[in-house]
Design a protein that fits this description.
Pfam family, one: Fic_N
Oligomer: single chain
CATH class of the largest domain: Mainly Alpha
Radius of gyration: 23 Å
Protein name: Fic family protein
Strand content: 5-15%
Structural class: mainly alpha
Organism: Dongia sedimenti
CATH superfamily of the largest domain: Fido-like domain
Shape: globular
Number of strands: 5
Amino acid sequence: MKAQDFGRTAPGKLVPTIDGAVAFLPDPLPPRRVLDLEPMINLLASASQSLGELAGIGGIMTNPYLLIRPLLRQEAVASSRIEGTITSVRQLALFESGMDVAGDAPDAREVHNYVRALEHGIARLQELPVCLRMMNEMHTILLESVTDRRGARVRAGEVRGEQNWIGGSTRIKDARYVPPPPQEVMPALHAFEKYMQAAEPELPLLVRLALLHYQFEAIHPYPDGNGRLGRLIIPLILCERKALPQPLLYLSSYFERNRDDYIDLMFDVSTDGLWERWIAFFLRGVEAECRATVTKIRRLQDMRQDFMRRVQRARSSVLLGRLIDLFFEHPILFVPTIARDLGISYNAAKNNLKRLAEVGIVKEETFKGRRYWLAQDILAITTNEASET
């Protein structure tokens, strides 16, 4: 990291760290100078309106979890891909079904952990605000059973005790960015937590979210998983603050599409205090992903209604409706799983699957010699990878 890159307007200071290098210690939030939000007032209004529309459609869903689960998988795949962890939505669904995909998708477990970590955070909101304790719990889940791939220094659920750096180099002096030394991490995190939980009517919630996401990434408090955890807390804070009734807004797809800008704009905040450019980028992401998510939710709702009409025309039992809902939660299923979850016999499960196949809702496929049932249209709404194996 080059000390000369950090100007007088940098929102923090350079401090010495290992091997004669320097690290960046960000100032506590809020920023010391008054933010100039006037040029982005229309963008802020548009992002807020889009968020309100998403909250509205989320508030009238009869069974939101059936529609949230496909969106959550897409978020897990996109967020993990930013960090170089590559798994398709289809491979993730195969892993969730109990299929051994290690040879074809070794990262599937890690991506699945992302889904589990977010679900844990959502459940914990009933008992806790978004806080360091919750983040440590989520980090534990995020890296469960994968820390051996990260090395002995990575301990799930524990704030780092060693210096880390960002930039793809094995030498700290060649790194692009060096976050605070380990002895500065906990004080910085406590200040982060204090600001996250404080009421600040002077700044809109979406602007504060942009500040918080930058701050978390600047602190980089864990040996691994910082980017994913930093993106995970965005929908949690929106739910905690009642801006959304359900965790419906995920920004990782936007960040992935604009990966260079995502990284560069946060770096520019650190070096020159260019908060407004980062905030505007963040707000554009909120607007874009809110609109995209509204479209996907409506398509999922329309699809579910269409599926229900198909089985009604076939004069089939109510059991088929329950089976359809099961596929919205898990688009790849085995016959024994269906029999167990619906409390029916193996033969009854298979017969009902054949009825769904007759009306084009599911189809039977094979992976590594094991036969399973796939609701391909559900996968196709959230990814263009539905035809992959």
